[in-house]
Amino acid sequence: MKIAFTASAKPGAKDVMRALADRYGNVDAGEADVIVPVGGDGHMLNTLRRYMSLIRRGLPVYGVNRGTVGFLMNRMDPENLIERIEKAKRTQVSPLKMTAHAVGGMIEDTAFNEVSLYRQTQQAAHLRLIVDGKVRLDRLMADGVMVATPAGSTAYNLSAHGPVIPLGADILALTPISAFRPRRWRGALLDNSAKVRIEVINPDRRPVSASADNTEIRHVQSVDIEQDHDTQLTLLFDADHGLDEKILREQFST
């Protein structure tokens, strides 16, 4: 098996990568049978972005955790790596496609966890939420709002008290961030075919930025979000550490 290793800047990640590469070999991603990023969830997202063209064509990714949380990663164990990869459970994920209309023009990007909008100043954001062409919330006053995938539902979405979504549920989470009005609105679960449009009300006085995972666009006026069903990415997880099992465990955590 030909493996392409990558490493984050986390302390120790590069040392672990060098040790694994010495033991199992290391090839260019274009020649690999699998990509093995060593680090945390942030490095996994960066790896998916960097090698998107190869991963779209079916190159799987098996993450090794040397980060803080590592929700998208497998445990660190240098023994029998190839056997573990061969036996790993394959999980298909589709990212979100974001089209942001900003002061400088239109910007498109991809998000694997969530697309979020957030206020740029001390002023609360005023947002209009439109789903499949119908206004569902004419004015949300909040720090912001996000659309999260099942794979990303345990990241920023969970910190904002959004729902944990099992893989295979074919739904997206629309979650407010510190909602002020309507105060009792806790968000919505949407079919993964939904097309979400978020419009910024009075963007000059209440500027808002949009982020596709960790890529930020400032001074947006509106953002369109939908799941990119044409893109199927394959993540590999050890049988006892699958992403669906991690999501289920998170729902029972205290």
Question: Proportion of β residues?
Answer: 35-45%
CATH topology of the largest domain: Tumour Suppressor Smad4
Regions with little confidence, pLDDT below 50 for 5+ residues: none
Mean pLDDT: 91
Global morphology: elongated
- Characterize the largest beta sheet: strand count, sense, and whether it forms a barrel: 11 strands, antiparallel
H-E order? EHEHHEHEEEEEEHEEEEEEEH
CATH first level of the largest domain: which class?
A: Mainly Beta
Secondary-structure-based class equals: alpha+beta
Could you describe the 3D structure shown?
The mean pLDDT is 91. By secondary structure, the chain is of the alpha+beta class. It has helices spanning 13-24, 41-50, 52-56, 81-87, 156-159, 243-251; strands at 3-7, 34-39, 64-65, 89-93, 96-102, 105-111, 114-119, 125-131, 134-148, 171-181, 188-191, 196-200, 208-212, 215-217, 220-227, 233-237. Strands 5, 6, 7, 8, 9, 10, 11, 12, 13, 14 and 15 form an eleven-stranded antiparallel sheet that branches. It has a three-stranded parallel sheet with strand order 1-2-3, sandwiched between helices. Strands 4-16 form a two-stranded antiparallel sheet.
